[in-house]
Amino acid sequence: MDSPALLAMTDFRQQIPVTIEPDMSIEWALQRMKTAGVRLLFVVNPGKPLLGLITSTDIQGEKPVQFRQQLNLRHEEIMVRDIMTPHGELEATDMADVERATVGDIVSLLEKVGRRHALVLDQDPHTGAPAIRGIFSASRIEKQLDRIIETINIAQTFAEVESVLNN
């Protein structure tokens, strides 16, 4: 828990994230995850900013069932865009904070915000604009620590996220 947080982060400078387009079926997304050996896909339109994320839990959980019932659709008609988590709802922290944080700080963050993933933002070296640098995954940290991360409590504001990392 006292190890540097960087040891638990998937750094996208070293590992390219797996992506999917929003108009693909959730069945295709799940197959892509299995083929790539991941549980999360970045939802993108080519040449445009990140739209959101979709996880295997999203696909295999209650989201598709609820969506299907609301619109009277067949399961195979549900698209990634229908159940993904939009980028505006994603948790994120700055790389500068991550460089000072421990794995325990990240566990506290994930538990407090009630999420299984948290993005890491850094400045693009060419433009200076914010860019996604990496991601923390509760599953990866659980394997490293041999401990379950409880993600039930939800933070109400971004200030709460910052507070967890800065304390």
TrEMBL record:
Pfam families: CBS. Residues 9-71 form the CBS domain. Gene3D superfamilies: CBS-domain. This is CBS domain protein. It comes from hydrothermal vent metagenome.
